[in-house]
Amino acid sequence: MADPITSNLKTRMKSSYDAMSSTYNTKFMKPDETIRLDYLGRLLAHLQKTENEKAAVLELGCGGGIPATKYLLDSENPLIHVTGNDISTAQLQLARSNLTQYADRVTLLEGDMLALSFPTATFDVVTGFYSIIHLPREEQTQLMHKVFEWLKPGGFFLANFSARDFPNMEEDNWLGHEEGWMFWSGWGEEKSVKMVEDVGLKVLVKEARQAVDDARFVWVLARKPES
C-alpha cells in the first residue's frame, strides 16, 4: 500500500519552490533545453497550419519563463499570448524579470493549477512541462477534464508525464537543497496516454524519452476535435 499523501501538499510545494527557485532554475531552466524545445517546435508547426494569426496559450507551471514561455513568445507566426501559471511566488517573480520585453503578451497567475478557472474554449493551446507530475494522480485526471473544456475546438495540448507508474514519491532535500521538499506521482506511460484520450483528446504524438540528469517521461501532443 502506498504511503498517504501529505495533507498540506500544495503549501509545502509552494514553500519549497519559493526557497529553491534559484537552484531549480540554474539546473533546469536552460535556453537551449533540447527535448522541450523539440516538442514546442512540433506544436508551432501544427499551429501554423491552422492559419490563425494569433494564439492564446495556457502554460501550467511556467516557472521562471525560460525556455518554454520565451520560446512561445518569440513566435511571429502565429503571434502568441501566454497565460503562465505557477504555484510559486518566487518563480513568477523570475518570470516577470525574464519576460519583461513581452509584458504586453504575458499574463501571470499564481496558484494551484487545479484551482484555475476559465470560460469554456478560452485557449488554442494548453501546455504542462514537468509540472502536472507534481499533482496527485487523481488530480491529474481531474485536471485533464478541465484542460479539455479550456481548449477551443481544434486546440492542442502538449505535456509530459512520468513514464513510471507510482502513486506518490516524496524527497526531503531535492537538488541538495535543505528546503527542497518535493512530491511527484505518475500513472505511467500507457495510463497517462489513456487519461488524455479518455477526456476526448486525439493523441497525435506519444513518445517516451529520457531527460538528461532526470527521469524518463512520456511526451504527449494531442488535439481537441474541431466539433
From TrEMBL:
<keyword id="KW-0808">Transferase</keyword>
<dbReference type="InterPro" id="IPR029063">
    <property type="entry name" value="SAM-dependent_MTases_sf"/>
</dbReference>
<dbReference type="Pfam" id="PF13649">
    <property type="entry name" value="Methyltransf_25"/>
</dbReference>
<dbReference type="InterPro" id="IPR041698">
    <property type="entry name" value="Methyltransf_25"/>
</dbReference>
<keyword id="KW-0489">Methyltransferase</keyword>
<dbReference type="GO" id="GO:0032259">
    <property type="term" value="P:methylation"/>
</dbReference>
<feature type="domain" description="Methyltransferase">
    <location>
        <begin position="57"/>
        <end position="155"/>
    </location>
</feature>
<dbReference type="GO" id="GO:0008168">
    <property type="term" value="F:methyltransferase activity"/>
</dbReference>
<protein>
    <submittedName>
        <fullName>Methyltransferase</fullName>
    </submittedName>
</protein>
